[in-house]
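Appendix B. Raw example, untouched.
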Amino acid sequence: MGSRADLRAAPGRPLYYYAAKSRPPSARATRDAVLAPLLVALWVHNYSVYGRRKLWKAAARAGIDIGRDQVARLMGSHGLRGATRAKKRFTTKPDPAHPRAPDLVKRDFTATRPDALWVADFTYCSTWSGIVYVAFIVDVYSRRIVGWKASRSMTAGLVVDALNMAAWTRRHTSLDGLICHTD
C-alpha cells in the first residue's frame, strides 16, 4: 500500500477525501464569499428589515449583479430575515392550575359508526379585512365537518355555536354515547 500522495496522484482513481480537501473553492463559493458581506451591509443599512425581494431590488439599485434566489440562499445561510407585520397569535392559553378533563379517547381516533366520536378544534385565517377565527367539529367516522362557525373574535360562544350546529345537523339521529374530543 502506498502513501496518501500515491492515492491522490494515481491516474484513473476516483477523487477521495484528500483530493476534495485540497481542491480550490468552487466559483459559487468564491462569489458567495464576496457577495455575502455586501448583502449583510446592505441589509443592515436598510435597518435590518428587508426581506429577500426588497434586498434583491436594493442590491440591483446598488449595482450588485446577483440573482433573486441567490439572495434568498445567502440570507438563509447568514440568518438574515425580513421584518414582518404579522404578530404571532396564540389560540389557546393553558392554565396550569386548572384541572384537565379526562382523555376519553386515549389518543385512539377511530370510530366504528357515525356520530360515535367527534373532534373539535379552532384556528384562525388571515384575510384582507383582518383575522377570522374558525371553529369546527369533525365526525371521525366519515371525516365530515358536521358543524362550524366563523367569527371576528375568539370567544367561547364561537366553539359553542359550532357544537350547536353539529347537534342541529344530526337532529334526526340519536347522539347517545357520543364523545366530543377537543384539546
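End of appendix B.
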